[in-house]
Amino acid sequence: MPTIVEDPQTSDKATDNVQALIQLLRSRSSEEIRERMYDNPPGSAWWSACKTELDLRNSEEMATATVNTSRALDKLHGVSDHLDELMEKLLRATDDMADVVRHVRESGRRMELTTYVIVAITIVQLFYIVFQFSVTH
Q: Measuring CA to CA, which of 9, 15, 34, 128 is 20 to 30 A from 53?
């Protein structure tokens, strides 16, 4: 099988040509570059330049998206930490409110007993006054 030996000068010239085309494509839209790429046969200088430029743009977009995702994740992490702190405060406040309700319930029971005692004493005093008034008359 014969070995194909590339001429280094031809290869350098093709590379330079592709680089020049890439620079030309920098100012073009991605849609226009795709159209040009599909209009030329694979392996041609135009096709290679278009493919290289599209790959480069896609890589740049992926890098930007990765950075934006990282920033969003950092913000989400901060929000998550803040929500954890708020939940802890809410739990403490709920426990405090439950303690207050327990104390109010206990105080209510004591007030009820105190009210019964006051009513009983008032009734006894009324009977005593009635008894004193009936004995003197």
A: 9
Task: Give Cβ neighbours of residue 49 (< 8 Å, ≥ 6 apart).
Answer: 18, 21, 22, 24, 25
**42, 17 Cβ separation under 8 angstroms:** no
CA distance 80 to 73: 10
The token pair at 35 is 């159209």
Residue 25 neighbours by CB distance under 10 Å: 22
CB atoms within 10 A of CB 97: 10
Element (H, E) at 48: helix 45-136
Amino acid at 130: V
What would the mean pLDDT of 46-54 be, rounded to a whole number?
88
Q: What pTM, to 2 d.p., does this model score?
A: 0.52
Q: Which residue has the tokens 């694979």?
A: 42
Among 21, 68, 29, 90, which Cα is nearest to 49's? 21
